[in-house]
Amino acid sequence: MRQLLWVATIAIWLLGETCLAKSSTPWGKNYFPNVTLTSHDGKTLRFFDDVIKDKIVAINFIYTHCAESCPLETAQLVQVQKILGERLGKDVFFYSISIDPEQDSPQVLADYRKKFRANWTFLTGNEADIVLIRKKLGLYIPEIQDGSNNHNVNLIIGNQATGRWMKRSPFENPHILADQLVNWLGNWKQKPVINNYATAPELRNIGAGEQLFRTRCASCHSITGQQVAGSIGPDLYAVTELRDKQWLLNWLQAPDQMIKQNDPIATALYEQYNRILMPNMRLSRQETEEVLNYIADETLRIKQTANLARK
Predict the structure, then answer these.
(1) pTM, entire model
(2) DSSP string spanning 118-172?
(3) Tens of pLDDT along 119-147?
């Protein structure tokens, strides 16, 4: 009799655990709106049923004529796309949702997507529905809604099935973001790999200019002396020697204004690189100087390394 009682107790416990597992996340269809959205290729999708249900996702909000953070966000996700390779669209899904649906038609989104060589889904829809999605994802800040397209530049990554969600900066290192999507969200229970750090290289100090370059510039630019295939922007090796310093300062601080003023060099670069407008990153004069100094130092380092290799 006692044995049967234990069996019954275990059965009830297992049933309770199963029910708990099935309802362990509050972030289901009763939380997220199942509003209708339209993709860049004209397909109708439901936000919960088709976009996020049982998926690992990265979602950001943009508008295609943004001259500041949106191009940088898109370029950064393109870098993550390269790291994920074939896993994008299979194990992990990206979505960029327009906050300006009046201008961002499916065709406009398709053109924008093509410019950046982005292989994920861009969405538009009813403005009120998009605001509701932003609120549910915690990416809507009432204090900055001033009638313009000011918006929270964070993106959100999550696994709807497990209920794990987190905000990420668009300036996040793409390798870290890819790791969080694939490992933190996809394999939470996987045992960590224990490495021996006894032979790890010593970490060097990173200057302000290099830090700015890594977080603001590296999504579109390299400093190698070789143009990387598929790059959104030019390689910047020796650019401080090739361009006038004042022009570089003006360009880094207000590229959108230089395009508006029909600066011939800025316009030529804009046309050469698929008409992608370099974002205005609101750099101060000091920050701009630091970025240019880093580019000059890195150029010199590459030259010195090449000279030593020839000897």
Answers:
(1) 0.76
(2) --SEEEEE-HHHHHHHHHHTT---GGG-SSS------EEEEETTTTEEEEE-TTS
(3) 999 999 999 999 999 999 988 877 555 55
